[in-house]
Amino acid sequence: MLTNNPLVVGINEFIDYSAVKAEHIEPAIKFLIDENKKFVDELVAAPTPLTWETFIHRLNENSAQLGRAWQVVGHLNSVVNTPEFREAFTKTLPLIVEHSTLMGLNKDLYKHYKALADQDLNPEYASYSKEQKRILYLALQAFKLSGVELEGEQKQKFIEISDKLAQLSQKFSENCLDSVDKWSYYVSDINELKGLPEDVIALCKELAVAEGRPNEWKLVVQIPVYVPVMQYAESEDLREKLYRGFSTIASENGNPEFDNSSNIEQILHLKNELAKVLGFKDYADLQLETRMANDSHEVMNFLDDLAKRSKPFAQRDLDELKSFAKAEFNKESLNPWDIAYYSEKLRKSKYSYSDAELKPYLPVDSVFSGWKKIISELFGVTLKDIQLPKWNKDIVSFEVTDTKSGELLGHLYVDLYARNGKQSGAWVNIERNRMKTENVFSTPIVYLTCNFIPPVDGKPSQLTHDDVITLFHESGHALHALLTKVDEVDASAFSAVEWDAIELPSQMMENFVWEEDVMNLLSSHIATKEKLPPELFEKIYKAKNFQSGMFNVRQLEFALFDMTLHIGMKDLKIADVMRILKEVREKVAVVIPPDWARFPHNFSHIFAGGYAAGYYSYKWAEVLSSDAYSLFEENRLADGSTLNPIIGLRYRERILEVGGSKPAEEFFRDFRGRDPQPDAMLRHQGLI
């Protein structure tokens, strides 16, 4: 047994994050891989068929510790990325990839699964639940997609491709992170920052002071600085400088040291090779094997239809913006770095409010207090502050229990603020899944991560409405993991829900932030403690679909670009990738970035995440989430609130609790009473 290693603890112990060091990673992972290998070898040596308890449960119990340790390592690599930690992670990653690949290729393991699923060999099969039969179906499918039926050269090729893809994806992420962290621009004249919110200016000052330059302000292309500069900076030169920095992240036009061009080419090539080895016509075909959507033709038709509906609205949005900029500011033409700035001016002109006016009503403490109350009222759960070991002083953690029974459901870590060494964006990961067997009962531990502007000068962070939407979005994912009643880990939400339905809970939660009573619960003015005034909420609500056409075509541009890259066996060079993006934009977009911009080089969703041939999932799931929310709208309380606990409980029981134990179309139908319809999505976005 490996001792004194904080990554190797009992499944029901908490990880001491403050104790995890780079030198713990390789010994822990090597030890746990060896233990898992030995166990699997002994397990598969037994005669078939084993029982559910002696095979599935024993396998999951033994694999849980390794899975958890690697989740912790991967999470820390994303949120406290030091050179030492990265080196240890990169060194250990091939070991995990190799082990995972070999498990997927393990014919003896496959044989036992097949025996359990064979009615002739396994007399217990007839008594299995739908959930158990689904687990076996998904497991056998996963084995086939993991190359278990490959032999000889093809098998070796699959192993090599899997290993190389993991390394390339990791390098892609590292280049993005390093490119962002290394980019900076120092301002010595505060007039250059005219228009920026005070908290952003204070943050830039704090960043410069930390670098030993107290008489300057340090600007970066991390989102908490970049977005406000684009929206508010009066200096067009400053906006262009940051736009150029952000738009050339990890490219030859930014910092060539971190250029992702070669990584993109190799990733696309190897994904084609992977599909070919497994017998699929292309990578899109491979990915869609496990999705709600039937094939790439259906996905492309879905996206093309939305694009045709959305583009006229997007063009109308842009025409309105151009007319406004010309009439009010004598601006004859708009560059891409002007769009957000004049859009903010137009929004303020049309609706008489800006984010700067709203933010004082949304200090983090108030938002968190209301957020906990909303989750409690809606889903019958309690989030209790609890001190857990953490990786940064700003982390908050909660114990999640059922309000009525007091049953422990899980634990939640929330990491809200941007900082160096932390991956950009917002996401949810799972440290530990719910699992109930004859020997083990563990509840979920979940990470919710954002990148909001941190507290500055002792003042609490103040959120924008978009920040609150992000918080609620990620909360939907977190609740999907936390509120599960699925005891079989192989049927958990993040293991078994189809990828194009996984965004349903997250996007559904966003809708509540457009309700006045919800914003009242979240708001408390930082100075006066006043709730959000009704007239300010009315302005926010009226602006809900402000430039929704432009936003929609941007998302459709990403999705169409992604699918086009992965349809067909194309050997693409970076010039081809940029050409495809240009062709998609000519078809869909109304704002065309400059030729020197390099969006693909920072498109981590498809080159370093799980969204390759899957970015369409956001729009696909939006149909589901909007339709799901419409049941709350149809059952408002007497005061007009959508916080209806009866519908909330129905949603909890029929979607959140069931995880991936049923196909998505089935659990959606259980909740909504019918198949999904697109009307609610189109209505919510002002497209009908």
Automatic annotation (TrEMBL):
GO MF terms, alphabetically ordered: metal ion binding; metalloendopeptidase activity
Domain Peptidase M3A/M3B catalytic: 229-686
Cofactor names: Zn(2+)
Any single Gene Ontology cellular-component annotation: cytosol
Gene3D superfamilies tied to this protein: 1.10.1370.40, Collagenase (Catalytic Domain) (3.40.390.10), Neurolysin, domain 3 (1.10.1370.10)
Entry-linked InterPro entries: M3A_DCP, MetalloPept_cat_dom_sf, Neurolysin/TOP_dom2, OpdA_N, Pept_M3A_M3B, Pept_M3A_M3B_dom
Biological process annotations from GO: peptide metabolic process; proteolysis
CDD domains xrefs: M3A_DCP
Enzyme class: hydrolase
Keyword Metal-binding: yes
Cofactor remark from the record: Binds 1 zinc ion.
Keywords: Hydrolase, Metal-binding, Metalloprotease, Protease, Zinc
Domain (Oligopeptidase A N-terminal) ranges: 35-155
Keyword Magnesium among UniProt keywords: no
EC number: 3.4.24.70
Catalyzed reactions per annotation: Hydrolysis of oligopeptides, with broad specificity. Gly or Ala commonly occur as P1 or P1' residues, but more distant residues are also important, as is shown by the fact that Z-Gly-Pro-Gly-|-Gly-Pro-Ala is cleaved, but not Z-(Gly)(5)
Family: Belongs to the peptidase M3 family.
Record protein name field: oligopeptidase A
Gene: opdA
